[in-house]
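User: Hi! I have a protein structure encoded as tokens and I'd like to know what sequence might fold into it. I'm fairly new to this, so please keep things simple.
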């Protein structure tokens, strides 16, 4: 029994059968159902790679004790696991959420504080006692939030985004702060068959161990029973609404 995110250059999870490179596969956490496990790999790999490979963090909680991370879109699929991982890494986690249910979800999954992404960030952060944040993980509307991220990122801080933009970003705005902007794309390793593809196996193996220890929890929020066209359409509709909490799984029955 295994779990994995797969590769975008091969047929994906709408298929009955899949062929997948063993370097990006790991043993499924035993305590989870297949649906609970299926909710994890894509978002977990994205969040883990962003925190470690892109932002340069480790899971040494002592070294991160006074560091802050702002997660924009904390209640979504990636946000739900990123808040848990960042919390586990010892960071002070500030998540953005705008509805009662998303605020509650973000806090249940590791956010110490929440702010509303529809309002100006700086006054809300300052009200929490923070002039700047050390790290930002952007999971929503990179172009809309870019100026705000430039404003609140700490000097020599780091910003990572997973959301493509059709607008040009003014990277020169980060120059005075010597701040980093970096992309995370979970499929980079399998797409280009990088020399370190095995890292995704290693990450999923570590996450499975944390799941077994109850250090991390699955982020599945809704399960649609039956692998059929109607459920696949509905799953895509729900995701594309932009209001998804956690992960949606389509389960074969």
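Assistant: Happy to help. Inverse folding works backwards from shape to sequence: for each of the 253 positions I chose a residue that suits the local structure. Here it is:
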């Amino acid at each position: 029994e295994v779990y994995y995110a797969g590769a975008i250059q091969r047929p994906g999870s709408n298929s009955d059968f899949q062929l997948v490179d063993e370097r990006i596969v790991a043993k499924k956490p035993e305590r989870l159902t297949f649906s609970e496990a299926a909710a994890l790999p894509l978002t977990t790999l994205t969040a883990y790679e962003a925190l470690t490979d892109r932002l340069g963090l480790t899971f040494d909680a002592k070294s991160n004790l006074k560091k802050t991370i702002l997660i924009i879109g904390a209640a979504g699929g990636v946000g739900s696991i990123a808040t848990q991982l960042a919390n586990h890494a010892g960071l002070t986690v500030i998540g953005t959420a705008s509805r009662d249910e998303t605020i509650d979800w973000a806090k249940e999954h590791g956010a110490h504080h929440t702010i509303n992404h529809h309002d100006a960030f700086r006054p809300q952060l300052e009200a929490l006692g923070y002039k700047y944040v050390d790290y930002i993980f952007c999971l929503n509307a990179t172009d809309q939030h870019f100026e705000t991220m430039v404003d609140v990122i700490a000097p020599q801080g780091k910003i990572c985004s997973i959301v493509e933009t059709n607008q040009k970003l003014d990277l020169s705005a980060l120059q005075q702060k010597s701040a980093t902007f970096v992309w995370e794309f979970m499929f980079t390793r399998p797409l280009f068959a990088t020399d370190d593809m095995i890292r995704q196996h290693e990450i999923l193996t570590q996450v499975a161990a944390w799941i077994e220890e109850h250090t991390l929890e699955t982020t599945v929020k809704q399960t649609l029973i039956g692998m059929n066209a109607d459920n696949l359409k509905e799953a895509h509709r729900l995701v594309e609404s932009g209001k998804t909490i956690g992960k949606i799984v389509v389960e074969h029955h």
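A useful reference point when you look it over: The chain has two domains: 2-43+188-251, 57-183. Feel free to ask if any position seems puzzling.
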